[in-house]
């Protein structure tokens, strides 16, 4: 993976709406030191970067100093790989276009790459996880939203502007679909994210009268975790919610396969860990909806990275590709 | 494009269901000699290849012989780039898996590459046409069916199995869609191909009673050309057919952009030449349905290659990438 023994480590920084987590990672994907700061606690990005550096630098020094670090990789919402900027991220406190990669490079003197969270997850999976050795795969992250990172011919797909791979915003129910946070209707993520699952639960509970454990929870508080717990206890309605969610996702995956014919689709996030309740309908709908030439060829995999580590590992993996400054 | 003056030419062979056309092409995309044979006239592929070689070899010799030819590129239905084979092509007389590239290499001693027609069109557009210099674009061919060729990071997307890029078979009307020749329902090509336009005409004429020039033609004989001619004469129903077709295609293109964020989408084929009748609704529906970050960024272009030359040029362009044997 990295034969440069002079610089045996990379740094991964995952910037979330609540927490920013960072870690020093070796070539095998072990996080050997880590820390975090609250993203929202710093009203200017300068203060934020200063605080991250203040916490990160001691970790770097304890591993032998800046000269041991090959690069820094950052995963951030609305991250643009080409420019190293975060652009108009709705969930971050800093508005406009933020040249975050350049700011870290300047302060620490370490080459820095940045991309969005789902792309970072895909690079992480290719470097340390379920997609090791694959040249063509699609990563789908099932979280609060649905994100994606696409790898073709062994390269991340960034598109002409750095923003490729927003498969959570492909329209799966045209005209009649659910309102999405992006302002359009029927996006995949309104159905197949954790919030989409909760939304389906509320809709089904309101539209029907059959018994369900989910009726013990007030509708506005239902989470996808509640639906999973009910499904495990044999709740038919909860199981039907996963069936519905998985079927929609599988149908969408069949269309994605017609685009890039990947070796595998790798699912990441809490929903992907809901076992057969969701994986069986995804797989069935995917195969049922594939064009004949694609049937039975594309693997459906679950991420091999631990949830708690995946974001930092993904971000760090970006840094192995960097050239020295 | 090609600085190897020792081998200044390539050969392009386009294999269609009816005719096979071949030509010798220079680095500027000029077809300097060409010929054709009837594809269906040869019941074995050996006879077919012999006949093509018999017609092609004199052309090659007149340009200085085999040593002047850098390579042969073949565009063929169900062509697989990785294996150089045609696999189970329903419209060709030879069944099963045909190792066509190897057969030409053996007979002529010239390196040979093969891919499907739409991919060849994309390589042609990138080498000689509207996509010159572009690293990220999507080619959509609007003919009897709808084909596509996708270029990302300057490379054709073949996928893990050689069959990527079947965007004509993305589902645009789920559940309620038209029956497709592929056995599924609601594929893009059932609406946005030339046959899809004729189908829309028949449906609208049957469902409605308003006057139309198209009522002068017996329903089963209506072609997309008839619809175009009527639209030019101010026929409202014909114009509405293009509006409907363009809207569906534009919606689909917006989803394709969310995948690879291309610099341009290049449309090829008769329908793409229907001017504003189709281009305006395509462009409007595409922009209306794009996620905000993509709006106004992707060009919608029409192929710059002449219809009659495009297939041979596209196939020939593949050959510039070949290594010497």
Fold and architecture overview:
The structure is a homodimer of 325-residue chains. In chain A, helix 1 packs across helix 2, helix 3 crosses helix 9 and helix 6 packs across helix 7. Chain A is α/β, with parallel strands linked by helices and 325 residues long. Chain A folds into two domains: 7-124 and 306-319, Nucleotidyltransferase, domain 5, CATH 3.30.420.40; 133-302, 2-Layer Sandwich (Nucleotidyltransferase, domain 5), CATH 3.30.420. In chain A, helix 8 (276-289) links the parallel strand 12 (264-268) and strand 13 (299-302). The longest helix of chain A has 25 residues, at 236-260. Chain A contains nine helices and 13 strands. The model of chain A has no long low-confidence stretch (mean pLDDT 94). Chains A and B meet through helix 7 of A and helix 7 of B.
| Span between termini of chain A | 20 Å
**In what order do the strands lie side by side in the largest sheet of chain A?**
3-2-1-4-8
Domains of chain A (count) = 2
CATH architecture of the largest domain in chain A: 2-Layer Sandwich
InterPro entries (chains A, B): ATPase_NBD, ROK, ROK_cs
Protein name (chains A, B): ROK family protein (Putative glucokinase)
Family (chains A, B): Belongs to the ROK (NagC/XylR) family.
Pfam family, one (chains A, B): ROK
Give me a quick take on this structure.
The structure is a homodimer of 325-residue chains. Chain A is an alpha/beta fold and 325 residues long.
List keywords for this structure.
five-stranded mixed β-sheet; 2 domains; ROK_cs (chains A, B); 325 residues; homodimer; ATPase_NBD (chains A, B); Nucleotidyltransferase, domain 5; alpha/beta; globular
């Amino acid at each position: 993976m990295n034969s440069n023994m002079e610089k045996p480590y990379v740094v991964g920084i995952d910037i979330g709406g609540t927490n920013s987590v960072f870690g020093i990672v070796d070539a095998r994907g072990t996080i050997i030191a880590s820390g975090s700061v609250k993203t929202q606690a710093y009203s200017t990005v300068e203060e934020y970067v200063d605080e991250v550096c203040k916490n990160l630098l001691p970790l770097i020094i304890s591993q032998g100093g800046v000269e041991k670090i090959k690069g820094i990789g950052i995963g951030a919402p609305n991250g643009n790989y080409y420019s190293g900027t975060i652009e108009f991220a709705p969930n971050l406190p800093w508005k406009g276009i933020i040249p975050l990669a350049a700011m870290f490079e300047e302060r620490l003197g370490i080459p820095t790459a940045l991309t969005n969270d789902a792309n970072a997850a895909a690079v992480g999976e290719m470097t340390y996880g379920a997609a090791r050795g694959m040249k063509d795969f699609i990563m789908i992250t099932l979280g609060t939203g649905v994100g994606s990172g696409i790898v073709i011919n062994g390269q991340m797909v960034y598109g002409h502007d750095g923003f490729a791979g927003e498969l959570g915003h492909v329209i799966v129910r045209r005209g009649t679909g659910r309102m999405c946070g992006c302002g359009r209707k029927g996006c995949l993520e309104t159905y197949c994210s954790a919030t989409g699952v909760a939304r389906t639960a509320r809709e089904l509970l309101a539209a029907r009268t059959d018994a369900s454990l989910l009726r013990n929870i007030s509708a506005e508080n239902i989470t996808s975790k509640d639906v999973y717990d009910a499904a495990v206890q044999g709740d038919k309605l909860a199981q039907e919610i996963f069936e519905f969610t998985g079927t929609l996702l599988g149908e969408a995956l069949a269309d994605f396969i017609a685009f890039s014919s990947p070796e595998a689709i790798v699912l990441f996030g809490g929903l992907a860990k809901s076992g057969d309740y969701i994986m069986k309908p995804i797989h069935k709908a995917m195969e049922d909806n594939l064009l004949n030439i694609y049937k039975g060829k594309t693997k459906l995999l679950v991420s091999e990275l631990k949830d708690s580590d995946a974001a930092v590992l993904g971000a760090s993996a970006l840094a192995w590709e960097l050239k020295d400054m």
